[in-house]
Amino acid sequence: MPKSENVTVTGRERTFDPDEIIVSKTDLDGKIIYGNRCFYRLADLAEKDCMNVQHNIVRHPDMPRAVFDLLWRTIKGGSEIFAYVMNRSANGDHYWVFAHVTPSRDSSGNVVGYHSNRRVPNREVLNSHIIPLYKQLSTIEQQHTSPKEGLAASTKVIDDLLAEKKTGFNEFMFSLGV
Ligand SMILES: Cc1cc2nc3c(=O)[nH]c(=O)nc-3n(C[C@H](O)[C@H](O)[C@H](O)COP(=O)(O)O)c2cc1C
Prior knowledge:
The protein has 178 residues and is α+β, with helices and mostly antiparallel strands. 39% of the residues lie in helices and 21% in strands.
């Protein structure tokens, strides 16, 4: 069970401005090594609370595990991913973002960590596509007593959706009209 399932949520949404970008960087294990001021403001956390702490410190319990599983498979494979994510502020509020997560490379091309830029999501896409899809995935994950089977079942929903649309995950995200 993810740590964040034991946390409180207020149901209140936080927003940020369209000209703002939420930035964070992690080491290879996903521990935060940098956040910009916008990141800390939305997360309702201080820099000292986050340094060298796992990025799931902002995980919202309603986010399906399949999205993060895909995120990690993608970036560990050396590729970038674009995804809608709902994060949790420390006081239990939530904020939706459209995130780009990608490996960071040194001058020789070695992956030395990961970084993410997030901007304000398209509200229409959230309401019409993402919130219903994520709800479906989370429900499937909760229906299984085995977390492994739950993850496999929700991942299959994503895979089937992409196969039906003959597209990749990033292309699918952009096709929704970000
Ligand atoms: C650069 C980077 C940025 C990330 N940003 C977020 C984020 O904004 N919110 C989030 O919940 N997880 C983010 N993650 C994924 C987390 O590492 C983690 O997989 C996720 O919170 C799920 O946590 P869990 O595996 O403990 O359930 C990010 C990972 C990386 C490498």
